[in-house]
Amino acid sequence: MGTWISTWTADPADPADPALPVLLCLPPAGAGCQQFRAWQPALEGTAQVYGVQLPGRENRWREPMPDTFDEAVEAIAAELVSTVGSRPLIVFGHSFGGLLGYEVSRRVTPRALVVSGCRAPGHWTGAGRGIVDDGEELDKLFDTADLDPRLLDEDTRALMVGMLRKDAQLSLSYVHKPGTRLSVPVHAWGADGDETVSAADLDGWAAVTTGGFTRHTTTGGHHAVLRRPQPVLDHLSALLRGEGASLTPTA
C-alpha cells in the first residue's frame, strides 16, 4: 500500500527545514495531489507543503478505494500525526477535499482550516448523487468554461469521469455528526460563478467552529481558486506566518 501523504521540496537535495509550519492540501474529487507540488516553490521558506493522495490515482493508481469516507479520514489522520508530529499545521481542502480536510481537522486540530468550493458539512446530504447517477453536474464540477479544450480530450475526460464518480460514491457514505465544534478559525473561499456551491453553502461553515469564520469570494467557476491560486496562496502565507492564527507548536 502506498502512503496517503506526499511532500515536495523546491530542491530535492536540500530538505525542508523540519521546524517549518506544514500546509496540508486535499484535492477535489477525481484528482490527485500532484497539482499542489507547484505550491511548494511559492511557499518556500514559509511552509512545507504536503498533499493527501487517495488511492486510485497518480502514484496510487492500482490501489483500491476505501470502502467508506470515515475509513479514508482515519487513515489520513493517523499518517498525518506520525508524519507532522507537533509542527504547526494549516489544512486546506478544495471541494470534496474540503470535506475530508474538515473531518481530518476534527482529529488532529490544526491552527486553521481553509476550504474552497466546498459545501459546509451539514449541506452534504446527497451531494454527489447527480454524478453517480450520470446527471448534469459533471460539466459544472469540471468547470470547463475557461478550460483549454486541448487539456480535456475524450480519453482524459473518460478517466476523470471514472475517478470523479468513485469519489462521489465515497462522499455518499458521509454522514455529518455535529458533535464538538472546531476551536480554530475556518476560512471558506467561493467563486461568484460557481454553479455547484452557493453562498449559503459556504456560510454554513460558521456553525462548525467556535474559533471564528470568514468567507472570501473570488471570480470564476468551481475550480477558480485552483486555476488562479495567487489570492488563496497569499492568504495561506499570512496564516502560516501566524497572522490571524497562532502558530506556536503544540507541546
* Strand residues, percent: 5-15%
Overall form: globular
Distance between the termini: 31 Å
Output the radius of gyration: 17 Å
Mean pLDDT across the residues is: 85
Oligomer: single chain
Biggest sheet character = 7 strands, mixed
| DSSP summary: helix tally | 9
Give the total of beta strands: 7
Order of helix and strand elements from N to C terminus? EEHEHEHEHHHEHEHH
Sum up the structure in keywords.
single chain, 251 residues, alpha/beta, 9 helices, 7 strands
Q: What would you say this structure looks like, in words?
A:
The protein has 251 residues and is an alpha/beta fold. It is 32% helix and 14% strand. The chain has helices at residues 39-42, 69-84, 96-108, 129-132, 137-142, 154-171, 199-203, 224-227, 230-240; strands at 5-7, 22-26, 48-52, 89-94, 112-116, 186-191, 213-218. Helix 7 (199-203) links the parallel strand 6 (186-191) and strand 7 (213-218). Helix 2 crosses helix 3. The two termini are 31 Å apart. Belongs to the thioesterase family.
